[in-house]
Design a protein that fits this description.
The structure holds two protein chains of two kinds.
Chain A lengths: L24 H4 L11 H7 L12 H10 L31 H15 L3 H21 L4 H19 L12 H13 L10 H10 L2 H18 L1 H11 L12 H22 L3 E2 L2 E2 H20 L9 H6 L7 H12 L1 H13 L8 H28 L1 H14 L15 H8 L2 H15 L5 H25 L3 H4 L1
Antiparallel strand pairs in A: 1-2
Chain B lengths: L2 E14 L5 H8 L5 E14 L3 E5 L6 H9 L6 E6 L3 E4 L12 H11 L4 H15 L14 H14 L4 E5 L7 H16 L3 E5 L3 H7 L2 E6 L2 E6 L1 H15 L1
Parallel strand pairs in B: 3-7, 3-8, 5-6, 6-7
Antiparallel strand pairs in B: 1-2, 1-4, 8-9
Helix pairs in contact in B: 3-4, 3-5, 4-5, 5-6
The chains are: A mainly alpha, B alpha/beta.
Chain lengths: 478, 243
């Protein structure tokens, strides 16, 4: 049985007659007709028709037929399906026929009175009427139409239906009763302010910096969720943006990487021979550090321009700009998938495959992605609006590779303080992690892991806050 | 009848900074700007479904800003904008295109950015191809196009994406005579389909031809909202007065 039938009110045996369900006849079944089958001769004899309304034209027919049927039965099989949320459907554009709900309700009431059946089903009807009218208000998106409907309810509909003579206990749902009273006395729906002191405190919290930050995080997450398909599509589309004109395309990116690694490896070999670092071949040491570095570096330099390089979109198209940084990160991620495969191949060739931990690798991949996405939220915001920031940032970026255990290892540093200082950078966790996945096995302790994820969380919150505050100004200042 | 566009007490401020980094100071402390200019001052008006409203005023009066606010591209400083229906903005036609993608690929690219699904774009790509009449150029990279050709592409996409509300910001004056003729024809077609339109133009003739009502924006305020002839008269008087 589906939610379109209130089973708790159904009689124990089927088929049954309308009298068996009088107390809840307006609650058991919904007023639409598409989940019901009627005997043709019964319909013709009844003289009942659909109302000539744009929406809610079936309620009159359905409810009155419920009352005059010879027999009613229910089946468990699903015989019909009902598509929801089609834009442009009559239901989805209810604001165009906002008064139809009352016309239907009123017509039913009149007909019941005419037939002398009103007293028999009065409570069920009144409860349904209120519930249905409220539902109509809620289902309308347009603010102006909503207000109009509420006004009309207050001034006309409630009294036409005679709602004022029923006490609170008459109503099955006390929330609906409260809402009815709110509309009747104050002409509006209940808001947070009316729901008690607890809500007041919540509002005060929201105005604090911490509260605003949580709101920002919620906002950013919801924007990402709403646009997830677009996000993924654009990430794939943007993958080859920088190399689309060339004939070799993305191959050039890998060519870049190979040259880079080659030069550093060759330099190292020339200067210091084929020594070993941390118990592994120095070449492998460097490579396992380089690959995550390429990814991080791309995010920090190319990714930071995510908003700025999309000036056209930001200034001229209605778009959820806060998802641009993440699109860029995902795009870089996809582009560099190949690098990871390449590294795997090289490390195998060097004979270190005896330890490859796929789980660790995937875990650190996730770490890299999470950290990059969080960082990019923050950085792309500032880069987008201030060129001074961008210049300073670019300069510092060049130095970054030397502060990480890629070209050299931290064990060379004697001072404890400098060691700690260098490890404050959460990217170090990722670089070390990749090395773990390919050669060493898990070496990072729980403390550092906790620190890393703490960093990601804090950076993400800061990034959300900044993006939320700046989103209104991108179109004006980029 | 429900309105297509409702603008209530809308204001928009722009800020100018002496040094680039001051903008960061302003974003978090609301201080540090050199100048503040209120481009729109408490604007209120409505556009009904199927209404074609002309928007007139000198350059800098705030017309483009108003269009951008209605299109949802930028945000109000105060007040509100309510829009009921899908908006097609003919404001900056070649924005969002990538110079290295072909015309065809750019339609898919920008169409996706505008929120259309691949199936939707598949459904209109042929119509667009016919309309823009670019021949072989349609499958050549955009950097080989003239500005008029890019404009045609942008125009076609905006128009064939089947918006219910059109915001036209002087784009009918862009491009060569052929494009102007074609775009005008297409726009007339859309007017006949009862779209709601805000039509910003410097051409009195076009305003007279298309609009049932005119809104005159001067110095960020609406100084007239009503009959087309009256509005145009007032506008032209002001222009002459300035000279």
């Amino acid at each position: 049985m589906t939610e379109t039938i209130q089973e708790k009110f159904l009689p124990k045996t089927v088929p049954f007659v309308p009298q068996d369900i009088y107390p809840h006849v307006f609650q058991i079944f919904i007023g639409w007709s598409w989940d019901k089958l009627y005997r043709r001769d019964m319909v013709m004899e009844s003289g009942l028709q659909f109302q000539a309304l744009r929406t809610t034209n079936d309620a009159f027919f359905v409810f009155l037929m419920n009352l005059q049927a010879d027999r009613i039965t229910v089946v468990d099989e699903v015989l019909a399906h009902h598509r929801e949320n089609l834009t442009g459907s009559l239901s989805a554009t209810r604001e165009k026929s906002w008064d139809c709900c009352f016309k239907a309700v009123h017509a039913i009431q009149q007909e019941l009175k005419k037939r002398g059946q009103y007293e028999l089903v009065e409570q069920s009807f009144i409860n349904w009427a209120l519930n249905f009218l409220l539902w109509n208000i809620y289902s309308i998106d347009s603010v102006s139409v909503k207000e109009k409907l509420i006004e009309r309810m207050r001034k006309v509909y409630f009294s036409e239906l005679g709602l004022e003579k029923y006490p609170r206990e008459y109503f099955f749902d006390s929330n609906e009763y409260e809402e009815y009273q709110m509309i009747r006395t104050q002409g509006r729906l209940r808001e947070e302010a009316d729901l008690g002191e607890d809500e007041d405190n919540e509002k005060n919290f929201r105005n604090t910096r911490a509260g605003m930050m949580i709101e920002s995080v919620k906002y950013i997450l919801s924007e990402h969720r709403k646009n997830i398909r677009l996000l993924i599509k654009m990430a794939f589309m943007n993958m080859d943006r920088q190399t689309v004109r060339s004939s070799l395309g993305m191959v050039w990116t890998y060519f870049h990487d190979i040259i880079y690694i080659f030069v550093f490896v060759a330099f190292r070999l020339l200067m210091a021979g084929n020594g070993s670092v941390m118990g592994m071949n120095s070449t492998v040491y460097m490579m396992t550090g380089m690959i995550p570095w390429f990814f991080i570096n791309d995010v920090l330099s190319q990714g930071s321009m995510a908003i700025r390089s999309n000036k056209g979109i930001v200034q001229s198209i209605r778009f959820s700009v806060t998802i641009l940084p993440t699109i860029e990160v995902l795009s870089i991620f996809l582009k560099r998938m190949f690098s990871f495969v390449m590294l795997f191949a090289v490390v195998t060739a060097f004979g270190y495959i005896r330890y490859f931990d796929l789980l660790l690798f995937l875990y650190y991949l996730i770490c890299a992605a999470a950290l990059s996405a969080a960082m990019n939220l923050v950085i792309s915001a500032f880069v987008a609006v201030s060129d001074d920031f961008r210049q300073l940032y670019d300069a510092l970026l060049r130095v970054l590779i030397y502060t990480m255990p890629i070209l050299w290892d931290f064990s060379y540093v004697k001072s404890v303080w400098i060691n700690v200082l260098l490890r404050i950078n959460p990217m170090v966790y990722v670089v070390k992690g990749f090395r773990d996945a390919f050669v060493l096995g898990p070496t990072q302790n729980v403390g550092y892991t906790a620190y890393f994820w703490g960093c990601v969380l804090v950076i993400f919150m800061a990034g959300s806050y900044v993006q939320d505050r700046l989103k209104k100004y991108y179109a004006d200042f980029v | 009848m429900e309105k297509a566009i409702i603008v209530k007490n809308l204001s928009k401020n722009f800020y100018f900074f002496k040094q680039d980094y001051r903008i960061l100071q302003w974003l978090f402390t609301k201080k540090g700007y050199e100048k503040e200019r209120q481009v729109l001052k408490e604007i209120s008006f409505e556009v009904g479904k199927g209404e074609i409203v002309g928007l007139i005023g000198v350059n800098g009066a705030g017309k483009s800003t108003l269009m951008k606010l209605i299109a949802g591209i930028t945000y109000p400083s105060s007040g509100e904008v309510e829009v009921n229906g899908k908006v097609g903005s003919l404001i900056n036609l070649s924005a969002g295109f990538h110079p290295d993608y072909t015309g065809r690929k750019n339609i898919y690219y920008k169409g996706t950015i505008m929120g259309m699904s691949k199936t939707e774009i598949d459904g209109i790509i042929d119509e667009i191809c016919d309309f823009v009449d670019l021949g072989d150029y349609f499958d050549q990279p955009l950097r080989m196009y003239s500005s008029g050709m890019s404009a045609r592409l942008g125009f076609a996409l905006a128009v064939y994406s089947r918006p219910e509300i059109l915001l036209i910001d002087e784009v009918l004056a862009v491009g060569d005579k052929n494009f102007q003729k074609k775009s005008r024809q297409k726009v007339v077609e859309m007017f006949q389909q009862k779209k709601s339109v805000i039509f910003s133009s410097h051409s009195d003739e076009l305003i007279r031809q298309f609009c049932s009502r005119v809104v005159y924006l001067r110095g960020g305020r609406i100084v007239f909202d009503g009959d087309v002839e009256e509005g145009l008269l007032k506008y032209n008087d002001d222009l002459r007065g300035k000279k």
